[in-house]
Design goal:
This protein is an alpha+beta fold. Helices cover 45% and strands 27% of the residues. It is globular. InterPro entries: Ribbon_hlx_hlx (IPR010985).
């Protein structure tokens, strides 16, 4: 087992209640849920920003009040391997499968964040490598 360090944080009461509920439903400790959530967050946010430049495969999910501008897709056409668009109510859901250099993926993610806001990057290479 890896070494642990106590790390106290304050979170909104409603969020803490949801963590309590999830811990009860999964018969596990709250720390396990928080550790899992933080691990996912750190992997998503540090993957293309901190690791050395590398080639990777990822999914970008962008939900906003407008679709991704075609000029952005055109600018990154070399790394956008597939895209899907869905409009539901007032939201536009854009899903991109991307493959290429981590610096290009980082640039695309940042540009989408500035342009449309809510963007999620899901690195897949560890899942892909396990099937090779």
């Amino acid at each position: 087992m890896s070494e642990k360090r106590r790390f106290g944080i304050s979170i909104p009461v409603k969020m803490a209640d949801l963590i309590d509920d999830l811990a009860r439903l999964n018969s596990c400790e709250r720390s396990r849920i928080v550790e899992h959530a933080l691990n996912e967050y750190l992997h998503e946010n540090l993957h293309v920003e901190v690791e050395e430049k590398h080639s990777c495969i990822s999914i970008i999910v962008a939900v906003s009040s407008k679709p991704i501008p075609s000029a952005i897709i055109g600018k990154y056409i070399d790394i956008v391997k597939a895209s899907m668009y869905y409009k539901t109510g007032g939201s536009h859901v854009n899903i991109l499968i991307i493959e290429g250099s981590s610096d290009m993926i980082s640039n695309l993610r940042k540009e989408l964040g500035r342009t449309i806001g809510n963007v999620r990057l899901i690195p897949l290479e560890s899942m892909v490598r396990s099937h090779d």
